[in-house]
């Protein structure tokens, strides 16, 4: 268990459980989920590392289903499973009417059993063969939750796509199911637009092919990105006073997405370099 730069009584609380539970306590002083994961990896055991989130509730047979998939497909190294939303209340009708992107917002997956692109394997429900970590692959600590409100999204997506480029194949285990707990505040437009910003800010790390980089730079940002950000900023300003509608939502979404993308150029959060530590795992 990794204490990730806590400033409260976490160390003493964790230590109190050592006599009762088989815990290995570690501390990572740099804030960030990926820093904590990388700190823990050398201490893992077994041939399959399983990952989830603190707001995901697995089905009772979840681990068994992932194990079965790994045993049945030895030529694959990345495994994902179904992520279903657990709503605090029925989602409002406008969410379906506006075609709100549930995958980006809530990591919802509904793939069929079989081989998939690694970018469809997400953090709340994934398993990675230990051989990938033994080869030195690590999570990019410049991506993912780090305590700041505007962090760059795409932590596990960036990692899994990097593994895929290195030759590791992904398999989707449809029957390995977790339920993603959706908090009430995560159903507000304001929260969704914050997610749009973080997704735009992270896109260059996990899918740089979607980013226009041609043309001259303006304040470090490619001119096509500047132009699109200006367009959506103006369109969103005109749409904001209007009644809720699908078009209005998407103009506001794209405004925030391009704001995040532009900021990623300004803060140098560019495409990820290989993140490896050869020989880190015994």
From TrEMBL:
It holds the Pfam family Glycos_transf_2. It comes from the Bacteria. Residues 2-133 form the Glycosyltransferase 2-like domain. GO terms for molecular function: transferase activity. This is Glycosyltransferase.
